[in-house]
């Protein structure tokens, strides 16, 4: 009899699809041509000239509209009081035009391409090789926002929001980073040490963003670099809660952990949008488990955490929900401590909290829910744990939340009723809590197991039992769908990255080196 093959891992992409590729174009001293004289052209002239480009403006009215820019003295602008010709585009790195018609735009694009230049036609996205975004200027720190020409006003609103978040003094810190980089490189420290140095620089810049850096900052950081070089940073493990699925529920501490990671070992249930928030260079490996299916052994995950940290890597073990709630974090913590690996726990919003918030429920209530308990729906053998205290479940003043109840819901509710829980006790089950494709069913303890079976196959489910789970009758009493859901998406087990053998995971990481 052949042994079933263990599915190979599906490593999620590091970045989602892009409408355009954002690039920062070096134009200093290079020929750039601008044709036109409208308001858009005047602004583009100032923007292009500010890069240090050798800007040539072609317009019959150039002497009037562009003269104030040409007379500034700090910009390299040459005015040509005539219309452009194809020969004017020769040797240009970038050519920009205002066009009154499609025919004029097509002619300019053809001439620009013949000259080997990148072409932009103002306010005509269909004719553009590259587009101008909304800018937040803290040069050399520059943030550009693009909507691919779909909604420039929206892009400007986003720019304004970012402007309010980034102090003007960050410009000085970015300049300092540029000026101090040669001194950092001259020390010829390892990549890990240099990265640790720049992390320290970043921490100081953001903590003291209200002032400009000083020579004392430089000296202290370079001295720290020397200490790091003498004793390179050791590896560490962070057990991070990814929350129930909505990326907006990720904590700031979890976000910082993702952006510091060298390797991310993640559950299958972690939303792709959350993985996209990680540092781009971080390797992502799916090591999650699928109920009653092939899974990575917990012992192998423990070994991988320890071995990667011993290599000096920052390893993020990213778990759905909260790592300390039925996430087997205790075993991973013990493995790290036994190996003397520093381990940090970053809590997350657990599924019970996410589901309750999405339902508009409070899990506790002074009138009828003074206690809250979390119970797992299956033990090591896949059955209901023998240790469940049924008298506690039957308590009418408690809210009981059952994790992973899909296969044991009927056995759970039957046992609860036998042990005294009223069959009329309200209950609600939620699949894919907090996500756009969230699905819910509600009923009573007597009916919820049957209704739970109608939830999407393969979806993670949370079951809430007790008076606190009683839904407003106006919201419906049986099948409900998430209000934010824009289209029904069925999630099957095949929709999530499949777990790998630990050997395949190690091979991925070796290839990444």
What features would you describe in this structure?
It contains 17 helices and 18 strands. By secondary structure, it is α/β, with parallel strands linked by helices. The strands form 4 sheets. It has a 6-stranded mixed beta sheet. Strands 3-2-1-4-5 form a 5-stranded parallel beta sheet, with helices on both faces. It has a 5-stranded parallel beta sheet with strand order 10-9-11-8-12, sandwiched between helices. It has helices at residues 39-49, 62-65, 67-70, 102-114, 152-165, 170-186, 191-207, 215-230, 252-260, 272-275, 298-310, 329-338, 351-359, 390-393, 409-418, 448-452, 502-512; strands at residues 31-35, 54-58, 77-80, 94-97, 118-121, 134-138, 141-145, 236-241, 263-266, 283-286, 314-319, 343-346, 371-376, 398-403, 426-431, 439-444, 461-465, 479-481. α11 crosses α12.
Per-chain topology:
Elements (H helix, E strand, L loop, with lengths): L30 E5 L3 H11 L4 E5 L3 H4 L1 H4 L6 E4 L13 E4 L4 H13 L3 E4 L12 E5 L2 E5 L6 H14 L4 H17 L4 H17 L7 H16 L5 E6 L10 H9 L2 E4 L5 H4 L7 E4 L11 H13 L3 E6 L9 H10 L4 E4 L4 H9 L11 E6 L13 H4 L4 E6 L5 H10 L7 E6 L7 E6 L3 H5 L8 E5 L13 E3 L20 H11 L1
Parallel strand pairs: 1-2, 1-4, 2-3, 4-5, 8-11, 8-12, 9-10, 9-11, 13-14
Antiparallel strand pairs: 6-7, 14-17, 15-16, 15-17, 16-18
